[in-house]
Write a structure and sequence with these properties.
mainly beta, Immunoglobulin-like, 3 domains, five-stranded mixed β-sheet, rod-shaped, disordered N terminus
Length: 329
């Protein structure tokens, strides 16, 4: 009988002792000796903390940052206290934009009853993700009806090495279109192809390239587009009205006005001449800006007023001018 009482008291004592010790379970737990994290300024990063339980240790574990947390950095455990069998918890570190770029050593403390464990966390604060870009060349000249390219060079921070930047073109006049390749750049360059319509007025235009990236404010850069007139020419005749007597002749001057670097020789001909009337051009073809037109009428040319079309062809371009011709008796 006495032995049974003593035995019962021993069990109760063990239970009471366990309660006084904070409910500590058998076994133990450990944390990794060292943890590492790299988080850019203005961003957050997660660290998984693994818990190793030995001898069937079953106990809740509460986590906290004991020391080393720099000003401007916040730490949040999820969960801050684990259940009795959990083997991990997640630590989220949020770094303010003003935190200095350097390494910090944090002390992580885990508590379960009277058991306390520590782990060192090496936090590297990196430079904030950012980028800039420049169009090259800063000024481009394209003729009407033609295309040209501009290279967009992106400069990235180490923490923004492959993030996408969506590029778009602003300020282009009607008739000018821009296509980026790629339109969402993950590298250091993108090629902008500019197509200028034939009706775009020659002149100088300022265009803007806009870049959009997740989590960052928009970036812009400008360049100059000069639109040149396409190779072309116009044709004029002086005087525009000419009188020739039967059996006589008269002269007029043809003027070739060249634009856009047009350099072709112009070949001339005339249509609408009445019977007995001839037209002679000198020189023909005309390599420069003027040509002499001589109209001759025979005695059989019928008196009257006629509309003569003067045709000039240079390369693939065809232009006309109108001459009012009067044959006088």
């Amino acid at each position: 009988m006495t032995k049974k009482v003593v035995f019962g008291m021993g069990v109760v004592g063990m239970v009471v002792a366990a309660v006084l010790l904070g409910g500590c379970a058998r076994g133990d737990f450990t944390l990794p000796a060292t943890l590492t994290a790299a988080v850019p300024q203005g961003r957050s990063g997660d660290v998984t903390i693994n818990i190793t339980r030995t001898q069937n240790f079953a106990g809740k574990i509460k986590f906290a940052v004991k020391a080393g947390l720099p000003t401007g950095v916040t730490a949040k455990f999820d969960p801050v206290e684990t259940d009795t069998k959990a083997t991990t918890t997640k630590l989220t570190l949020t770094v303010g934009s003003a935190v200095a770029v350097q390494k910090y050593t944090l002390t992580i403390e885990a508590t379960s009853g009277r058991k306390k464990k520590e782990a060192k966390l090496e936090l590297t604060v990196q430079v904030a993700p950012d980028y800039s870009f420049d169009p090259a060349p800063a000024a481009v000249t394209i003729r009407q009806g033609a295309s040209g390219t501009v290279t967009i060079n992106l400069k990235r921070t180490e923490t923004f090495r492959t993030d996408a930047v969506a590029l778009s073109l602003e300020g282009a006049p009607a008739g000018v279109t821009g296509t980026f390749s790629p339109a969402s750049a993950t590298g250091t360059t993108s090629t902008l192809t500019l197509s200028v319509g034939t009706a775009v007025a020659p002149g100088r235009y300022t265009l803007t390239v806009r870049g959009k990236a997740t989590g960052l404010t928009d970036k812009t850069a400008t360049f100059t587009l000069t639109v040149e007139a396409a190779p072309d020419f116009s044709l004029g005749v002086t005087p525009a009205a000419l009188t020739v007597r039967q059996g006589g002749e008269a002269t007029a001057s043809l003027t070739i006005t060249r634009v856009g670097g047009f350099a072709e020789a112009v070949n001339f001909s005339a249509t609408g001449l009445p019977t007995g009337v001839t037209a002679e051009f000198d020189p023909n073809p005309a390599p420069a800006g003027t040509c002499l037109l001589k109209i001759a009428a025979t005695g059989e040319a019928a008196p009257g007023t006629y509309t003569v079309t003067l045709v000039g062809v240079g390369g693939t371009i065809r232009k006309t001018a109108t001459l009012t011709l009067t044959i006088a008796p």
